[in-house]
Amino acid sequence: RGHPNSIYARDVEYVLHPVTNARKHEEIGPIVIDRGEGIYVYDDLGNRYIEALAGLWSVAVGFGEKRLVEAASRQMSKLPYYHTFSHKTNEPSVELAERLVKMTPARLRRAFFTNSGSEANDSVIKMVWYYNNARGLRQKKKFISRTNAYHGITIASGSLTGLPANQRDFDLPFVPVRHVTCPHYYRFAEPGETEEAFADRLAAELEATILEEGPDTVAAFIGEPLMGAGGVLPPPATYWEKIQAVCRRHDVLIVADEVINGFGRLGTMFACDYYGIDSDIMVLSKQITSSYQPLAAVMISHELYEGIADNSGKIGTFGHGFTASGHPVPAAVALENLDIIEEKNLVENARRVGEVMQDELRKLADHPLVGEVRGVGLIAGVELVADKATKAKFNPVGKVGAQVFSRAHEHGLIIRAIGDTIAFCPPLIITEDQVRDMVERFRVTLDETAAMVRETEVAAL
Ligand code: PMP
């Protein structure tokens, strides 16, 4: 398997790949990732890559971590599966729930487990509806999300998502949702507008939207503290304080989607700690098991739990759960993974090495292709532009990003191109030297791409 002269394998294969141009894929084929070690993955031809996106923003403790393999194996031998339905449970899921309740902000008191972030956000919608029904607020159903947001791809979570490719030709949104402007200061601030004024404007937009819909119909606001797949967007410092004040004024619940941010990414255990967010619901996944096993958790407040419990008491059951909700194997892996994060001080590592990554990437700010470098801790975005002065985008959007993405493979680097924004989110175990190596590979990739862009411009003259 695999093409002898190419990092792309060209054999016929049978997978419909997600988030891929299917026709282009037929032409170039996939890279077959074969194994991983630390921050590196290897393809089936033996090429080594720095996994600068930790898989899909997922792997905290690195690839090839034997302790997670052993934790899964131990649990598989003891009890390979049991559910959490009908007054049954299993030890790892209870222990994990207890641990998450202790780790997360004090208001969050119960955990509900799912297999994926999308299912978790679907569950959030249903739990909020169920809770509001219990309060006699059957009209209070609408969600407010943001443009560029990513919260999943199922019919409901995909409705919260605000990215055209995930919605347009799927006829979404399908649940009642309004999307307000995302906190993308570089793109959406007006000329001369301060970050503070920008945050005020976005909070005012949120309030106007709630009032327009009617506060008695708006159930919740959902947002990633720092938006990841939407282009790596750290909000202005006072954004969350202002958003929370608006939500509280109108009895609108706050849902913090920490699927990417959670477990140390920003240099704090949760991004809610970093931004001072006091959410009613927190959604966790990805780094919870370093993605060695699929798992997500919805953390809910005491009030929400009480409302849900009251309602289920009335009708006899809380009719929501997945076959693998509270599956003991991912729960056991999560417990071991959290031990590793704590023992190796990976949150502190993300803060310390994250500063180096941010500094090194910001040295590229003068590069002719770079419009803005942004990020916190070990997550960063580098937005590429056609014209630094006017911030003009490339035409078509995403073409240069795709070039950088492909070329980076040739320099042993896997990154993510979100349109023309290049995203970095390496495993939390990355060292300073490895960060420098990663950024150097990226710089060379950018230089080559700039030369190619110039050639194309000259050819077009
Ligand atoms: N929320 C956020 C912020 C995400 O980044 C993702 C996945 N990238 C999801 C939800 C959905 O998670 P999953 O892919 O596990 O369904």
TrEMBL record:
<dbReference type="InterPro" id="IPR015422">
    <property type="entry name" value="PyrdxlP-dep_Trfase_small"/>
</dbReference>
<dbReference type="GO" id="GO:0004015">
    <property type="term" value="F:adenosylmethionine-8-amino-7-oxononanoate transaminase activity"/>
</dbReference>
<dbReference type="GO" id="GO:0009102">
    <property type="term" value="P:biotin biosynthetic process"/>
</dbReference>
<protein>
    <submittedName>
        <fullName>Aminotransferase</fullName>
    </submittedName>
</protein>
<keyword id="KW-0663">Pyridoxal phosphate</keyword>
<dbReference type="Pfam" id="PF00202">
    <property type="entry name" value="Aminotran_3"/>
</dbReference>
<keyword id="KW-0808">Transferase</keyword>
<dbReference type="InterPro" id="IPR049704">
    <property type="entry name" value="Aminotrans_3_PPA_site"/>
</dbReference>
<dbReference type="InterPro" id="IPR015421">
    <property type="entry name" value="PyrdxlP-dep_Trfase_major"/>
</dbReference>
<keyword id="KW-0032">Aminotransferase</keyword>
<comment type="similarity">
    <text>Belongs to the class-III pyridoxal-phosphate-dependent aminotransferase family.</text>
</comment>
<dbReference type="InterPro" id="IPR015424">
    <property type="entry name" value="PyrdxlP-dep_Trfase"/>
</dbReference>
<dbReference type="GO" id="GO:0030170">
    <property type="term" value="F:pyridoxal phosphate binding"/>
</dbReference>
<dbReference type="GO" id="GO:0009448">
    <property type="term" value="P:gamma-aminobutyric acid metabolic process"/>
</dbReference>
<dbReference type="InterPro" id="IPR005814">
    <property type="entry name" value="Aminotrans_3"/>
</dbReference>
